[in-house]
Design a protein that fits this description.
Structural class: alpha/beta
CATH class of the largest domain: Alpha Beta
CATH topology of the largest domain: Rossmann fold
Number of helices: 18
Number of domains: 3
Largest sheet: 9 strands, mixed
CATH architecture of the largest domain: 3-Layer(aba) Sandwich
Shape: globular
Strand order of the largest sheet: 2-1-10-9-11-12-13-14-15
Length: 551
């Protein structure tokens, strides 16, 4: 695969001079951990399909991943090839990532929920040479799906199946054969070792706005990000990382799989989200840190059954990926005694902003944090001119964590001559450099020529005692251009009518022009696997709706 990363020499030199890129591979951290803490648990998971729990030590993870790496070589995987996996949060994902790094292949994580349409595009576009899938997950036959697609995937030479029963079983092909006795591991790993600026990961954007793009990251852009997070959040080798966000998304990939290896500590994985199971795992494993979308935090906070478990070990819940309701942050902190950290990031750069210990309450509850050292942010107008504090505009980023291009789409890499990347988000920045995401730039609702502060109205709806989730999108209108439609998910046992919503917003002293002019109660929001609400799907529904009248 010819990745064609956009990585100017000037950027490499600047990152090295500022000591923001460590110039190390994740396998270097694994080797350090295996030497320092060989018997310490690296990853523990629970396979909901088999009912089997597995714990792997650092000694075992090193040996297993090296064996898999040699097996990949025997199967013809070359440096620069793409190896894909469509796995739940099981230990196999970490082992495959480490194996690919050993031999210079790029790992391509794919969400377990993807089906024929998504996989046909993604595997073909990436020219994946090998794919690892589960035999079955949540009742779905993954090998059968891939068998139906094979004729349309000419580059895909091998499909291996975790817990397989045929000769394509991952265990039979890669795990149970002593490849280290058949191949010269030392010579192969020395020859195949990639540089920290080679493409290490290809991850597809999660699709809040439609067609996904292949985001290319290097070891330096990934590890450079995670090092800063470790420093700023204050994590150590004594922490235990709990991860229920998918490893196939950068939240899980970075902070649930890669970061624990860098810390030489334990990763506790959950493959199917359930707040009660999560609370039990956090209690039993003594988890101290987790990161997930606000919907995960909401489920934990408002589930009565969770209260049976002692989650006092969990000192930090970092929630990012979408504007976070202030009331949720405050309620969770008061209920559990943990520190809820608000943040913002994206597939193209991982986590970029977050609130810090010691921040004033208004920063924690009312912002998405400030950037960590090594990343810069600015808010600009339509012409690219930086705006003053408090003004809403386009959010741009620059720094160590920014990706190095979109696969086969160099023209989509929206970078200006000074290296500022256009995120697609709108935001406001205060005088201290803290931002508040105002929504995607395409989510702007313009009613009669006036911008409606969508996130602020959603925030008010979240505060209503009947509302669990809220999202506002535009309905087309001949006279005003657009009007707002509020989609809400209600808490169990609650009701909300359109007149009651209007009465509530009036009591909140909201300007009437900002009121949603239709209410749609839905059972659940369409979401990306990382938890972001897919507003483009709600907009599709709203195109056919008409407003109610407001007295």
């Amino acid at each position: 695969m010819n990745f064609d990363p956009i990585l100017p020499r000037e950027r490499i030199d600047a990152m090295r001079a500022a000591q923001l890129w460590p110039d190390r591979l994740i396998t270097d951290y694994l080797d350090d951990a295996a030497a320092a803490r060989p018997d310490h648990v690296a990853v523990t998971d629970f396979n909901s399909m088999t009912g089997r729990a597995t714990s792997v030590s650092y000694r075992q993870l090193q040996r297993i991943s090296n064996r898999i790496a040699l097996g990949l070589v025997a199967l013809g995987v070359e440096a620069g090839d793409v190896v894909s996996f469509q796995l739940p949060n099981w230990w196999h994902a970490a082992a495959l990532y480490l194996a690919c790094t050993r031999i210079g292949a790029a790992i391509n994580p794919l969400m377990p929920i993807f089906r024929h349409r998504e996989l046909k595009f993604m595997l073909r576009f990436a020219e994946s040479k090998l794919l690892l899938v589960p035999r079955s997950f949540r009742g779905f036959d993954h090998p059968a799906m891939i068998a139906e697609l094979r004729g349309e995937l000419p580059a895909l030479e091998h499909v291996l199946v975790v817990d397989g029963r045929e000769d394509d079983a991952f265990e039979a092909v890669l795990l149970n054969q002593r490849w280290e006795d058949k191949l010269d591991a030392e010579a192969i790993f020395r020859e195949r070792r990639p540089t920290p600026n080679d493409i290490s990961q290809l991850v597809y954007t999660s699709g809040t706005t439609g067609q996904p793009k292949g985001v290319m990251h290097t070891a330096n852009t990934i590890i450079g990000n995670i090092e800063r997070i470790i420093e700023q959040v204050g994590l150590t080798g004594d922490d235990v990382i709990f991860m229920a966000s998918p490893l196939a998304h950068n939240t899980g990939f970075y902070y649930g799989m890669t970061m624990p290896i860098m810390l030489h500590t334990k990763s506790v994985l959950q493959d199917i989200w359930n707040p009660v199971v999560a609370a039990q795992r956090i209690q039993d494993e003594g988890a101290t840190f987790t990161m997930a979308a606000s919907s995960f935090l909401s489920d934990l906070t408002f589930s009565a059954e969770v209260e049976r478990y002692d989650m006092r070990s969990l000192r930090i819940f970092l929630t990012a990926g979408a504007p976070i309701p202030r009331v949720l942050v405050q309620t969770a902190m008061e209920k559990f005694g943990m520190r809820v950290v608000s943040g913002w990031g994206m597939s193209e750069n991982g986590l970029v902003t977050f609130t810090l210990s010691g921040d004033a309450p208004e920063k924690v509850f009312e912002t998405d944090g400030a950037p960590f050292p090594g990343m810069e942010l600015r808010v600009v107008d339509e012409g690219g001119t930086p705006l003053p504090p408090g003004a809403e505009g386009r959010l741009q980023t620059r720094g160590c964590a920014n990706f190095v291009g979109y696969l086969k789409r160099p023209e989509a890499y929206d970078l200006d001559p000074d290296g500022w990347f256009e995120t697609g988000d709108n935001a406001r920045m205060d005088a201290d450099g803290y931002i508040r995401i105002a929504g995607r730039s395409k989510d702007i609702l313009i009613r009669g020529g006036e911008n409606v502060p969508v996130v602020e109205v959603e925030e008010l709806l979240y505060r209503h005692p009947a509302v669990q989730d809220a999202a506002i999108v535009a309905m087309p209108d001949e006279r005003l251009g657009e009007r707002g439609c509020a989609f809400v998910v209600l808490r169990e046992g609650h009701e909300l009518t359109f007149p009651a919503m209007v009465q509530y917003l009036e009591a909140c002293k909201l300007a009437k022009d900002y009121f949603p002019e239709r209410l749609e109660v839905v059972a659940e929001m369409p979401r990306t696997p990382s938890g972001k609400i897919q507003k483009f799907k709600l907009r599709d529904v709203a195109q056919h709706l008409t407003p109610h009248s407001i007295a």
